[in-house]
Design a protein that fits this description.
With 111 residues, chain A is an alpha/beta fold. Chain A has 5 helices and 7 strands. The chains are: A alpha/beta (111), B alpha+beta (408).
Chain lengths: 111, 408
């Protein structure tokens, strides 16, 4: 449910999707925490493949972001319309750093 | 031999029987002798622990093959391994014997080494069968335990559901300034959605709709706890016990009390609102719950609200109160995401647009009927089975001439 890439020394975690809901939330969180065991400070969470996010999925996402916030500021990218709507409704776009594309997200760590 | 197996030894010739018995005893078996088929069957009936039979084929009265058949007819749960002894020059019909249930054949005179080897095979088969039977028994017992546990769980769930339902307000209530109506369809017996509406001391109406993330028992327990907390007192100023509070202050209080730890995100979305004592101004605070809909007496449905942080995710979250001015006869609808995210068999979500359409189509019906219509729509959309998520709807319609609750 996660694909990892290292781009310009940024850890990119690509959620394979297409749904991040109650059925997936627990596994998503476990897999995610495994990937960030080394406490990386530059992390991009790529949501391009996720077309549906429900409240359980959002809860899982927030819990891993909180963990990442201890060592850096993760950037989320590739929000699809339904996910974007969810982010706006719950104001996640105000507390999470969101970029349009993976390139933008990775570039935001440069310099 | 690990445990001494009892072997029923059947032969009409006492000489042959004694020879075989002596050999079996030397190999470590315990022998039960029988002189004919009748005696053999009686011995088997008397001693259910016998699982190995060595019988002569040619015997007066009941032959070895007949004995096989009768052994197979015995009401025994475990398999009895039957070996038939054949004469060297015999013209025995092996197919018939196998059909009768014989497991193995030994030719006479019996070679003790061959017998020992065949017996080891027989024991192996019997051991496997015993193990299988033990496992089957264990499985049956486990299944029984599971069934009992499941039934108990089911009963607990039903009891919990009754408690939950008892916490909900009447599905349709005249609250002076407005008629309120609501419906809840849990995805399982119990629900993470909950709502309430009640008149405050000054005649205004406080209400909330709330959806705990996830569903099932965990979410339901939390929703029950929240329901107990959100009494009328939570909506009025503590100093005078009657002035309605700002809805954002009520939500901010909850957010301070319910910060989930980092490991799990138990949080909820809600809208809490206060409809003033004239039924003309609604103040509400939206905390991650879907945008409510205003359906004016004349005009199209319109979503209101600017979103807001869910409760329990961020300790420093700011909440705001939104004000909506209403005319007599205007209606408002509040719903959980179980409505808009209700999936058709092909995965298409019901969506806000479809909800607005059905509101527009049914607007001349009574408030209760409109809610019923939305539910019917959703069931039709989902096509069979229970919903994937709890579905709750609360609505109100302001009265033209509010019957005020004057209180001194």
């Amino acid at each position: 449910m996660l694909k990892t890439h290292i781009i310009d020394s940024v850890l990119v975690l690509e959620v394979t999707g297409p749904r991040l809901d109650a059925a997936q939330a627990v596994r998503f969180r476990e897999e995610f925490l495994q990937q960030i065991e080394g406490n990386p400070d530059r992390v991009v969470i790529d949501f391009s493949n996720v077309t549906f996010l429900d409240s359980s999925g959002l809860g899982a996402l927030v819990s891993v972001v909180k963990r990442l916030n201890k060592h850096g500021r993760p950037v989320i990218c590739g929000l699809q319309p339904a996910v974007q709507t969810m982010f706006a409704l719950t104001r996640m776009d105000q507390v999470l750093t969101v970029r349009k594309s993976r390139d933008d997200a990775v570039a935001s760590f440069a310099g | 031999m690990p445990n001494r197996l009892r072997v029923l030894c059947v032969d009409d010739s006492s000489c042959m029987r004694d020879m075989l018995a002596a050999g079996l005893v030397r190999l470590g078996y315990e022998v039960v002798p029988a002189a004919d088929g009748q005696e053999a069957l009686a011995a088997l009936r008397a001693d259910p622990s016998i699982s190995l039979v060595i019988s002569d084929w040619m015997m007066p009265g009941i032959t070895g093959v007949d004995l096989c058949r009768r052994i197979r007819d015995l009401p025994r749960p475990n398999h009895i391994h039957v070996m038939l002894l054949t004469a060297r020059q015999g013209q025995e019909n092996f197919l018939e014997a196998m059909a009768a249930g014989a497991d193995d054949f030994l030719s006479k005179p019996v070679d003790m080494q061959t017998l020992a080897a065949r017996l080891r095979v027989a024991e192996r088969i019997l051991t496997l069968q015993q193990r299988m039977q033990r496992n089957n028994t264990l499985l049956a017992q486990t299944n029984q335990k599971l069934r009992t546990a499941y039934r108990r769980l089911q009963e607990d769930m039903e009891a919990a559901a009754r408690v939950q339902r008892s916490l909900l307000p009447k599905p349709s209530l005249d609250l002076g300034v407005a008629r309120f109506a609501a419906a809840l369809t849990p995805s399982t017996e119990i629900s993470g959605d909950v709502y309430n509406y009640q008149v405050l001391p000054d005649g205004s109406v406080a209400f909330y709709v709330l959806d705990v993330a996830g569903h099932g028992a965990r979410a339901a327990l939390m929703s029950v706890m929240l329901c107990r907390l959100l009494t009328a007192e939570a909506f009025v100023e503590r100093d005078d016990g009657r002035t309605p509070r700002q809805p954002d202050a009520v939500v901010a209080d909850l957010n301070r009390q319910f910060q989930c730890d980092d490991s799990i995100s138990d949080y909820f979305t809600m809208i809490c609102g206060i409809l003033d004592r004239d039924g003309r101004v609604l103040r509400f605070c939206q905390a991650g719950h879907p945008n409510p809909v205003v359906l004016p007496l004349r005009g199209r449905p319109v979503a209101v609200g600017n979103g807001g942080f869910p409760v329990g995710l961020f300790p420093d979250a700011d909440y705001e109160t939104v004000e909506v001015r209403l005319e007599p006869g205007d209606r408002m609808f509040f719903y959980s995401d179980g409505v808009t995210e209700c999936a058709a068999p092909d995965g298409t979500l019901y969506s806000q647009d479809r909800l607005h359409q059905v509101l527009e189509l049914t607007r001349t019906a009574s408030l209760d009927r409109m809610i019923a219509a939305i539910q019917t729509e959703l069931h039709g959309w989902h096509q069979g089975g229970s919903f994937d998520d709890d579905v709750s709807i609360v609505a109100f319609e302001t009265f033209a001439t509010p019957a005020r609750h004057h209180s001194s």
